[in-house]
Amino acid sequence: MSILDNFSDWKAFLGDRVEQAKQAGMESETLQNVAYQIGSYLSEQVDPKNDQERLLKQLWDAGDQQQQQALATLMVKLVQNRNDANAGS
Fold first, then answer.
1. CA dist., res. 54 & res. 1, Å (int)
2. Proportion of the chain in helix, strand, coil states, percent, rounded to 5
3. What is the CATH number of domain 3-84?
């Protein structure tokens, strides 16, 4: 089973990678640029496996580059908030 099969697994995987990047000293702007590149790759190369991924792809495809960068930034924030909430538990 791929991490892309389940959206919760994908968010957990992405959150773990974001946390590792932060701990390695990656700056926020660099992290957001990487997230944008990953989003572009996924949109072009990977078929959505669930409803959430289909929605994200539709939003990505509907947006221009600036909007896609904003969506990538929001995904990073989403998983950071998840990590922050879990750290407080």
1. 18
2. 80, 0, 20
3. 1.10.760
